[in-house]
Amino acid sequence: HWEVSRVKWAVTSIEQGWSPQCDAEPVEGPDQWGVLKVGCVNGGSFRATENKALPADLEPVPELGLKVGDVLVSRANTRELVGSAAVVPTDHPRLMLCDKLYRLRAAPDMVLPTFLAAFLQSQVAREIIELEATGASSSMVNIGQSVILEMPIALPPIGEQEDILERVSGLGAQLDELSS
Questions:
Q1: pTM
Q2: What's the CA gap between 153 and 120, in Å, rounded?
Q3: What is residue 89's three-state secondary structure?
């Protein structure tokens, strides 16, 4: 009963941001504008602290601010890290998407953002991403939007996606406990 589709049919949009020359320091508070670094999604968790402050003489682009449920995917990084994905857990209207990240917005009737991000971190998706990554330098490879959008994805009903995510989370907690 699962539907096999492509990522492009499970999202309402994909876009990338802007990477102006920024200060080396992160933003100092919620009223300051910043631009995300590509490493904000490494390890499958979103880290808002991975950003650079936007200089005061540059005009921010509010449309690039982050909303809860945005799925961020690195489009340029090392072969091991390109395609890293994470979900934005809370709104960050003054943190802007950089041009080294894709933002996917999940179609709410088809896929949960957390399910989409988990899929993008799966072994199957990682193999496709690493195979399709291009670039002359091993320290920096890229993936095009089509690599993500054309990827096949198995989509159970939303309720089952929730059950799967809960089970995966529980197993992850058990592995963390065993590792400790």
A1: 0.92
A2: 9
A3: coil
